[in-house]
Amino acid sequence: MGAQQITETMMQLNDATQQTVESLKATSEAVRQLQYAAGDLQASVASFAVLA
Q1: d(CA 31, CA 24)
Q2: How far is the C-alpha of 25 from the C-alpha of 32, rounded, in Å?
Q3: Is the dihedral of CA 13, 18, 21, 23 positive or negative?
Q4: Which of 33, 38, 31, 35 has the alpha carbon at shortest distance from 46?
Q5: pLDDT tens digit string along 6-31?
Q6: Which pLDDT does position 9 carry in this prediction?
Q7: Among 23, 37, 1, residue whose Cα is nearest residue 45
Q8: Rounded Cα gap, residues 30 and 36, in angstroms
Q9: Can you list the pairs that 20-23 forms with residues at least 24 positions away whose Cβ atoms lie under 8 Å?
Q10: What is the rounded CA–CA span in Å between residue 11 and residue 15?
Q11: How distant, in Å, are the alpha carbons of 15, 18, 47 from that of 31?
């Protein structure tokens, strides 16, 4: 493996790492939104009472 191949491989690894970072950011934002929605749902459901 020559220096050029090593450079290209390192660049590909860098690109893959950047894509992973972006995916993790998007996943984190989706989780945050889901937590917010779950809190809203829990607050809405709390107003209901189940009578036996």
Answers
A1: 10
A2: 11
A3: negative
A4: 38
A5: 999 999 999 999 999 999 999 999 99
A6: 97
A7: 37
A8: 10
A9: none
A10: 6
A11: 24, 20, 25
Place of tokens 């984190």: 28
Extract the tokens encoding 45: 């459901």
By residue count, the chain amounts to 52
Residue listed under structure tokens 């950011």? 25
At 1 the pLDDT is 77
The tokens for 28 are 């984190």
